[in-house]
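in:
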């Protein structure tokens, strides 16, 4: 995998010399990286009279590329090795960081000088590869698509793809082809399938509105052992520009970019991290809940603006990070607590959760029938032959070609009917919560619906987003919301859990508890100080609700903000009399 490509370096191919006395000109070709300067002028016989004229010399393009060994090819227990490549002329800028390539070249060894100005060399040689050919192929992954990098599809392949797209159950077939070894989770597989297709890229920067995000972000959270990491690994091995990181083993600079000193030029250079290397691909982040806060804060800009702003060591730039994020998180108590909201279960900031288009729960149902079916499915995986598996599932090569063709050739747009239905759906989602004082949808939810509808139209190889695409996008979005944004107190969907971290019912209860605590403090009369533990015990005994210490501390914080009390320490509370 290419991990770094330097700037283009001009390398001298033919040196142009001019005599300082008689102005006689001579050209000398560079051999083995050295210039043989003429000792005497051929015209006036003047010794050491030639001067190098840079402007009239001939230069060729040269680029330094760093290549890292692929994890799949490494022997067990070894760290990946890096090799320095030198690309010349037309091969310059033919690969980018993040590309997986096979290189054909000449392996060379260059002696290192002890002192640069002297001929004395070390016994240690420095090695590099002079590139003859780059080949960007990876048979196990999707074909890469991008600006000016059209994948060549033969007419036979295009005919097969179009034939497959006309089948009535194409959506279910493609969804089942994703991670076929994992049992059930149809909606989650459908969500990941739509993430692989992505929405339509829109750029309105000329009109001053900027670009709209077309990538879909998905979060999987739930009980351990529900094959979350398996799904992530499957997507990582399928997509060409994909990166796999674990939350605990990732740092903020590892995800974004860090400044290093270039050993060749001795200048500060920017080394890109996982999110930039996964540009136009998928970044799979496992153990998302175990990330440090500083690392997680980096994702805010990437997941909405699709860029990465950097100001380090005098290098100020903005990098593209048009990547879809597929993350997996475990609950804090190891098992999902149905009496708590998603924020309390996985303890992630609500500002980050609201940036995910779909949040799915993968829970262990603890059902005897389900357990029997799952066990049968797992046992069958061990004794079924490869031919039987291929008969049951869609051929993986067809799936790769299908997704690549759809991403490259199909760019659907909304029609009037679909646009009207999207407006109706959004207004209905808002209206559901308006009656009980809750917010059940934000503009971000509408943008998510548009992206999902476009991805579904792409999956059908349709250039127009129709009503069935909007209906499926709404169904999938509603299923995800049912799981992730349901208020455990009322049992109803409340999107404010994802956007503000607390449900409307929870906020109302917090206000009521603070009001009851204020009445209790006022009933004490003109007392200037109160005991923290004594007040907590009294309040808990006099309340009809089950008051936890966390609720009590939240109520004290609200009263302190209102100027009713001042919490001086963990043992005393000072009352502010008006």
């Amino acid at each position: 995998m290419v991990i770094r490509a330097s700037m283009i370096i001009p390398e001298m191919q033919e040196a142009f010399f001019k005599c300082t006395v008689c102005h006689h000109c001579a050209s000398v070709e560079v051999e083995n990286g050295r210039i043989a300067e003429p000792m005497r002028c051929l015209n006036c016989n003047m010794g050491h009279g030639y001067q190098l004229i840079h402007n009239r010399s001939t230069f060729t393009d040269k680029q330094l590329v760093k290549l890292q060994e692929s994890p799949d090819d490494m022997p067990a227990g070894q760290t990946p090795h890096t090799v320095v490549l030198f690309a010349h002329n037309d091969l310059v800028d033919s690969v980018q960081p993040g590309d997986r390539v096979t290189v054909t070249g000449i392996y060379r060894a260059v002696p290192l000088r002890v002192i640069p100005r002297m001929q004395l060399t070390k016994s240690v040689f420095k090695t590099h590869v002079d590139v003859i050919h780059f080949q960007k192929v990876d048979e196990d992954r999707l074909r890469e698509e991008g600006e000016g990098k059209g994948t060549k599809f033969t007419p036979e392949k295009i005919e097969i793809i179009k034939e497959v797209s006309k089948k009535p159950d194409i959506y279910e077939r493609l969804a089942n082809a994703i991670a076929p070894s994992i049992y059930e989770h149809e909606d989650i597989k459908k969500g990941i399938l739509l993430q692989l297709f992505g929405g339509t890229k829109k750029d309105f920067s000329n009109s001053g509105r900027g670009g709209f995000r077309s990538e879909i972000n998905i979060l999987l959270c739930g009980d351990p052992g529900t094959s979350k990491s398996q799904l992530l690994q499957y997507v990582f091995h399928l997509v060409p520009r994909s990166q796999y990181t674990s939350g605990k083993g990732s740092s903020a600079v590892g995800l974004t970019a860090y400044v290093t000193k270039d050993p060749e030029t001795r200048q500060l250079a920017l080394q890109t991290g996982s999110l930039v290397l996964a540009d136009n691909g998928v970044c799979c982040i496992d153990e998302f809940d175990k990330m440090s806060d500083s690392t997680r804060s980096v994702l805010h800009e990437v997941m909405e603006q699709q860029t990465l702003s950097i100001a380090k060591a005098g290098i100020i730039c903005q990098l593209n990070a048009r990547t879809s994020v597929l993350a997996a998180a475990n609950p804090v108590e190891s098992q999902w607590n149905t009496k708590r909201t998603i924020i309390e279960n996985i303890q992630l900031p609500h500002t980050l959760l609201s940036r995910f288009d779909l949040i799915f729960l993968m829970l262990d149902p603890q059902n005897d029938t389900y357990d029997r079916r799952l066990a049968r499915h797992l046992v069958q995986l061990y004794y079924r032959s490869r031919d039987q598996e291929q008969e049951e599932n869609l051929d993986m090569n067809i799936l790769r070609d299908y997704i690549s063709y759809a991403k490259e050739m199909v760019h659907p747009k909304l029609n009037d009917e679909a646009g009207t239905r999207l407006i109706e759906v959004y207004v209905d989602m808002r209206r559901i919560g308006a009656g009980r004082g809750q917010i059940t949808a934000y503009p971000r939810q509408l943008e998510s619906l548009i992206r999902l509808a476009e991805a579904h139209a792409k999956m059908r190889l349709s250039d127009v987003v129709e009503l069935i695409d909007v209906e499926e996008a709404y169904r999938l979005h509603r299923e995800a919301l049912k799981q992730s944004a349901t208020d455990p107190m009322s049992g109803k969907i409340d999107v404010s859990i994802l956007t503000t971290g607390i449900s409307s019912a929870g906020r109302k209860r917090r206000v009521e508890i603070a009001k009851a605590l204020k009445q209790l403090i006022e009933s004490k009369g003109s007392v200037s100080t109160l005991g923290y533990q004594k007040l907590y015990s009294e309040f808990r005994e006099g309340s009809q609700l089950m008051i936890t210490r966390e609720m009590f501390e939240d109520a004290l914080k609200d009263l302190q903000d209102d100027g009713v009390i001042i919490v001086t320490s963990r043992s005393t509370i000072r009352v502010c009399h008006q």
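note: The chain has a mean pLDDT of 77.
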